[in-house]
Amino acid sequence: MSNDNDDNDDNKTKEDKQRVFFQAVKDGKIKTPEFIVWKSKQKALIAQYTDFTKANPYSNSIFAQALPPYISEDEFIKYANYFPNYFTEEVRKLTSPEKHDRATTLDKLFRVTNKNIEVFQKISSAIRRSYTDKVHDGEHQNSRGGIVIYGISSEGKTFAVNFSLSYFYQFIVHLKTRSNYKNSAQPDMDFVIQITWLKIICPSNGGPISLCNNILSAVDALIGSDYEESFKSSYGHRTELDLKIYINRVKQVIKDIHLGVLVIDEIQFIAHGESKQQLADFLVELSDEIGIPIIVIGTLEVISAFSELSFSFKSKLTKDNEVYFEPFEPVNGKAPKGYRSLIRLLFKKYQIGNHPIPIELFDEQEKVLSTATEQAKVESISDIFFHETAGITLYTINLFILLQQHINLLEDKAKRNARKAKYQNKKPTPPKTKSVNEIKTLIKKTAKQSFQINRKYLNAIIRGDKESLQKMKDVDFREFRRKDASKKFQPSVDIEEAQEQYEKNVEIPSKLKTTLDTYGISEKIADEAIKAVMDGYNDETEFELITKAMDLCKKMVEKPDKPIRLSPHIERADIDLGKVQDELEIIRAFCEEQKANKKPGAVPDILRKHGLEFNLEAELDL
Question: How far apart are the C-alpha atoms of 466 and 463, rounded to whole Å?
Answer without folding.
Answer: 9
